[in-house]
Structure formats: C-alpha cells, structure tokens
Amino acid sequence: MLARFKDLCLDAADPHALGAFWARMLDAEVVDLGDGDTRIDPRSTGSGTESIWVNRVPEPRTGKTRVHLDLRLAGAEPAALLAAGARLVREPAGEIRWWVLADPEGNEFCAFAPRPIG
Question: Are residues 111 and 80 in the same domain?
C-alpha cells in the first residue's frame, strides 16, 4: 500500500454555512475549528467514516467540481435533502437512475435510492 485515504476536503466561500449543510445531509456534527474553517464529524465513532474538512478559500469556484459525493437516500426520493437546502439539478431519466443535486455553493452531488432489501 502506498497510502491510505484520510479525509475529504471541500473548499468554500462560507465554511460555516457549507459545513452546517453537509452536517444536516449526513446527520453529522459540525466542529468550528476557530480559524474560519469547519470539520464535519460522523456522530457514530464506530462508523468507520472519516471527517470532511470545509476550508475557506478566497477565490470563487469556477466550472464544474471534478470530485463529488454520492449519497444513498434514506427514502425513495430526495425530498428531505431538498427541504434541508439542496437544489435539484437533474432528476433520474432513462438509464440514469439517480438525482443530481447541488449544495448551497453550487457543488453537485448524486443521490441514489435505497438499496432493495433482500
């Protein structure tokens, strides 16, 4: 092994607002790092999930984000994510069976229906 994944870092104009958004999406906790940045920690220490760091950057995002999060929905549709501040970019159509949403800073992410039981 050459390396092991540590964390995901998101650049943001407003780390507190974006951190709060992702904490709502992932049922996680926002930690104010005291320097303008935030960290999103999983609530369950045994989850095996690493933190997401949200770092303040001075420049605006330009173009499409090249890395994004994929989420597995708790319900059949992303209504709860939309109610919590996500914006719908694209609904499932044809062979594409997932929703594309955007966070408050316009970063796109994908939302997939729950896995079938059985």
Answer: yes
